[in-house]
Write a structure and sequence with these properties.
Largest sheet: 8 strands, antiparallel
Radius of gyration: 41 Å
Strand content: 25-35%
Low-confidence stretches: 1-24, 141-163, 863-905
Mean pLDDT: 82
Protein name: Cytochrome b561 and DOMON domain-containing protein
Amino acid sequence: MLRLKPPTVLFLFYLLIPSCFADPARECQKTSPFIGLEYELFMVQHQLRGVISVIDDCSFRVSQFDMLSGSDIHWWGATALDFANLTSGFMISDHSLNETYKNATFTVRLLDNVTWDQIPVLAVWDLPTASDFGHVVLNRSESGISLSPELAPAPEPHLAREKNRVLTVPTMFDNCKVLSENYRVRWTLDVDEQLIEIGLEAAIQTQNYMAFGWANPNVSSEYMVGADVAVTGFTVDGLPFVDDFFITKYSECMVNKDGSISGVCPDSIYERNDPVVFVNNTRLVYGHRKDGISFIRFRRPLVSDDKKYDLPVNYTGNVTVIWALGLMRPPDAIRPYYLPQNHGEPKSVAYGHLVLNVSQHVDDCLGPLDAEDKEDQDLIIADANVPLVVATGEAIHYPNPPNPSKVFYINKKEAPVLRVERGVPVKFSIQAGHDVALYITSDLVGGNASLRNMSETIYAGGPEAEGVQSSPMELVWAPNRNTPDQVFYHSVYHQKMGWRIQVVDGGLSDMYNNSVVLDDQQVSFFWTLSEDKDSISIAARGEKKSGYLAVGFGSAMVNSYAYVGWIDDDGKGHVNTYWIDGMDASSVHSTNENLTYVRCKSENGIITLEFTRPLNPSCSHSDKPECKNIIDPTTPLKVIWAMGSSWTDGHLTERNMHFVKSQRPVRVLLMRGSSEAEQDLQPVLAVHGFMMFLAWGILLPGGIMAARYLKHVKGDGWYQIHVYLQYSGLAIVLLALLFAVAELRGFYVSSLHVKFGITAIVFACVQPVNACLRPNKPANGEEISLKRLIWEYIHLIVGRSAIIAGIAALFSGMKHLGERYGSENVHGLVLALIIWFVIGALIVMYLEFRERQRRRERIFGRSNWVLGNIDEDDSMDLLSPSRDSAEKNLHQSGRMEVQLEPLSR
C-alpha cells in the first residue's frame, strides 16, 4: 500500500481543485485559413510593436511585443479600420494589457463566442480613451479568401514576405542596436536587392536631427571626417526627410571664398554643376512623431553610383559606423537645406561610433523608448479678452487616434491643448459650422456621452454653441475653483473632434492689466504700467515649444532692443538684454538694463519671461545703447519676437539662431491696452504729407518772404504774390487735413504731430480774418493809433507762430511716420527736410542782410528819405489796395517815420 506524506497529499489536493471546478474548455480546432500566418502590428501610438501569429481557431501568439502602459487596454475586434467601425468594435479576449511590455511573448485566447471570421481587424484598444494603440488587418488574400476593398490594408511603403509572415509595417526590422540611452538604430539587410533599410528612432524634440552613417575606413583617428552620413529629421511643417551628407571637416556647411564647399554638407551641394550624378542616394520610406519619439525609415544601396561622396557598405565584415544627435538649422535664402549643428553634448550621449557587422543578427533593444515629454500637440494658453477662434479642418496629427476626418482647430492649430486659469473668463469665437456645436465636458471622447450610456458633466456650451465665419457665435466660459484640473472641449454631435483643457490656478492674465497676441499668434505679450507712469512690467510667453524666447522693440531684429529668456542646463531661468545691429551673431551685443522682478520658466517646453524696467532709463553714460531704449507710453511700441533651439549667456554663435520669428512688428498701444498690425504707408497719407510740405515748406514761407523782401520793387507785385501764395497754401493745408481725416476715419489729437498741426492751422486761419479787421494806416506825420499798433503786433506774431508750428508739425509728422510704418527711409527724409530749411534760413539771412543794407543806403544817401514812402510803404490794405495807393500819392514828404513791419507787407 502506497502511503503519501501530508505535504504530498496537500499538493495533489490543490492540483485537483481547478480541474474539478473549471468549465470545460471549448475544443480548439485548426480549420481557420489564417492558421500559420504571422502579422506585424502597425504602430499607432504608445510605441507598440509586435508579431501576431494565429495558432488555432481560438488563440494566437504574440511575440516581440513592445508597448508603453495605458489605463484599461484590451484586445479589440472591428469590421474595418475606419473611425466608426473601430469605435463600435468589441472585446475579443479577457486578456488585459495594463502594463509596459518589453520584447514579451505570450498566448492570447479568444472569448468563447468569438471566431476569426468576426475579426477582420485586430487591435490593441484602450477603453477609457477609445484609443487605438496598434492593429493588424487579417489579410484574407493570403488564405485564398478574396478581400473586400474596405477591409484591404492601406498600402505601406515596405512590403515583403519571409516564410509565412506578412510584412506590412515600416516600424519592424530584423535587427536593432542601442546607440545611446535615447537613440537606436534598426536595420534589415536585403542582399538580393543590394539594399539596406535603416530605421532611426530617438527621444528628441522636433527641431533635432538624427544622423547615422559609415566612417571612412582610411581614416583611423577622426571617424567623422570623410564619413558618408544620412541626416534625418522633420521639417517645420512636421514632414519627415532624409538627406545624404558627406563630412569634410568639423564645422557647419559653408561656402569658402574660393567657391569650395567644406563642412557637414549634403552630397548635392559639393557638385552643384552636376546635379544628375551627385544626388541624394538615400530614399525616405516612412517617418512619424509619436509619444515624443522621432522615427525615420530610409533605404540606401550597398554600393552607390556616386563613388566620390558615397562609401560602399561592406555587409559581410566589421565596419565602423558613426552617429549623432543635435539641433537642426532650418533652411534660409542662402542655405536651402536643413543643416545639422554641432551636437555639443558628451560622447556616447549625443554622438559616438561603434563597430558593426550588419549581416549578423543583433537585437539588444529591450522594450520601447520612453520619452519624458510625450505631448507633441500645440499648447494654447487662454487669456482674458483674447478670443479663441474655433474652426474645423483636416485631421493630420490628431493626438488620440482613431479620429474622424474633421477635427477642431483653435487659432489655426489642430486640436491643441488649452490651458485656462481659474477665475479668468475664456472667450471662444465659434466658426466651425452649423453642424458642429462646441461644449466643455468631463468626457474624454465627447459626442454626448449619454448616447454611450455614460454620464458626463457639461461646464459650458451645448447645441446652441455653433456658428460660421460670417456669423460667429461667442461663448464665454469662466472656470471656477470647483472645475477639475482636466476637462475636454468637443463637439456635441461628433466624437473625438477636440482635446484636453488644462485648468490651473492663476497666471499672467491675473498679474497684468493688458495683453495682446503678437504677429502670427505665436507669442502673447502682457504689460502693466505703474501708477506713476515711470516703469512698466512686461511678460511674454511663447505658444510653441522652443529653447529660448526673444521679444524685441523695433521694426525688425536689426536695430532693435531684445529681451531673451531661456533655461540653462541646471534648470535655472535667465533673462538677458541685448542691442542688435546686424544679422550675424557678432552683432548681438549684451547690455545692462536695470531689470527687476526677473523671472523665466519653461513648462513642457513653453518659455515664459517676465521683468520690470523703467520707462526712461537713468544712465550715467548716455552713450551706452541701453540709455536710448526709452519707452514712451503715449507712442505705439513696436514689438517683434523670435524663438530658437538654444541660447547661452557666453559667446554667441550661429547655433543661437531662431527657427521661427515674427513676419512684421505689432504696434502695441500701451495706454489703450490694444494692438494693431504694422501696415504699409497708405497712399493718401503720403499725399497728405507732400501737400503739407508744399504748403508749410514752400508756399506760406514764400508769401512771407515776398512781403518782407520784394517791396522795393515798384508797383504792388509783391502784394499780389503775398496774397496768392498765402491763400494757396491755406487751401492746400485744409485739403490735406481732409485727406488725413478721411483715410484714418476720424480726428484724433493724441499724438504730438496732430497737436502741432492743429495749432498751425488755427494760426493760419486767423490771418485772413485778421486782415479783414485791419485798421487804416495813419497819414504821414500822424501818430500811429493803438489799434493799429496792436493789429500789427498780432499779425506779425500770429503769422510767424503759424510758420513755426507748421515746421514743427512737418518734423513731428516725419517722426510719426517712422513710428507707424518703419524708420528705414524716414531718416533720409528727415535729413532732406533739415537741409531744405537750412537752405531756406541761409536765403533769409542773405535777403535780410541786403534789406538792411538797402535801408542804410537810403537813410544816409537822401536826407529827406521816408521809410514809409511810396516805394516802401507797408500801409497797403489787403482788401483794398487801390485805396492805399491813392493815399500814398497824397502824403509824400521828407519826414522820418519808423514803423513796425507787419507780416503781410
